[in-house]
Structures are given as structure tokens and as C-alpha cells.
Amino acid sequence: MAIRNIRKIGDELLRKKSKPVDEINERILTLIKDMQETMYAADGVGLAAPQVGILKRVIVIDVGNGPINLINPEILETYGEYIDEEGCLSIPGEQGKVLRPEKVKVRGLNEKGEEVTVEGEGLLARAFCHEIDHLNGILFVDKLIEGEE
Questions:
Q1: Is 6 contained in some domain?
Q2: Which of 4, 37, 103, 145 is the most exposed place for a label (fewest CB within 10 A)?
Q3: Is the pTM of this model over 0.90?
Q4: Into how many domains does the chain fold?
Q5: Strands 82-88 and 46-48: what pairing?
Q6: CATH number of the domain within which 105 lies
Q7: Does residue 96 form part of some domain?
Q8: Which residues contact 4 (CB under 8 A, 6 or more apart)?
Q9: Tens digits of per-residue pLDDT, 131-143?
């Protein structure tokens, strides 16, 4: 496992759309392990593959209940909404208020290639939305709510 460099705002790769993972092979499994290690080393709660320079649809999240790794994640359903503070490992030192769903249902593949559905609320829902946005070239600063302190 290795800690990878986290791409910072201004890096054009962060604005590109990631490609689906066609095959879960050793490279993808190593990527997931490296992303986890990188996320923990940076004190983050989530990381998307584009943030470490790989345009593949892979995210890792840990809001304190153990890691969730998803390949080709997609949001199936959202419920409610709320505004809260967000930050990003790719935009160090900057935070702002973003409107996100209160709850989400997400589907993706686990490391064994099995389809899994995960529901999250609060911080976990926010993390899913934030990391999946990264896969589509969207950063939280694109969704800042003006006038919110």
C-alpha cells in the first residue's frame, strides 16, 4: 500500500468525468487500498479516484464506522435536504455551506464484484454525494450556497 498525492484545485483532471471500471483486477484493488491509506493519512472522510489522478469510478468513505469502498457507485434515491459545512482534501483550508440530501441510497460494486446497496444519512449521505460528484468532475465549491456563513 502507498500514500498517493492528492490533486489540488486547479488540476484539470479534477474536472473530468471518470470512466466506469470494467474489470476488478489487482490494479483496482491496489488503488482502493492506496486510496484508503491516503484518506486516513490526510484525516479525510472520503476520497474519489480522480483526487489521486485516476479517472475511474471508485470511491472510499469512512465516517467513523469503518471503510465503505464502492466501484461504479450511483445514487438511486435521495430523501430530504439540509445545508451543512463541507470541505475537501483537494481544496485545503476552504469550507462552505452546501445543500445535500439528508438520506441517500447508493448502489455499486464491492471489491469482489458483487452489487451492493448502501443507505446513508447525515454525514454519510453527504460523503456519498460529495465523492460521487468528484467522479463527474464536480467540486463542492461549485455548489456553495451564497450568503450562508
A1: no
A2: 145
A3: yes
A4: 1
A5: unpaired
A6: 3.90.45.10
A7: yes
A8: 34, 35, 38, 52, 53
A9: 999 999 999 999 9
| C-alpha to C-alpha distances, 138 to 85, 130, 141, nearest whole angstrom | 17, 8, 8
Q: 40-65 pLDDT, tens per residue? A: 999 999 999 999 999 999 999 999 99
Q: CA-based angle 62:98:106, to the nearest 5?
A: 45
Residue 3 lies in a domain: no
User: pLDDT of 77-111, one tens digit each?
Assistant: 999 999 999 999 999 999 999 999 999 999 999 99
Question: Is the CB of residue 5 less than 8 Å from the CB of residue 53?
Answer: yes
CA 102 to chain centre: 16
Q: What range does the domain containing 104 cover? A: 12-143
Look at residues 144, 137, 143, 122 and name the one whose alpha carbon lies nearest to residue 61.
Answer: 122
Residue 101: count of CB within 10 angstroms of its CB: 19
What number of other Cβ atoms are within 10 A of residue 77's Cβ? 12
- Look at residue 149 and tell me if it is in a domain: no
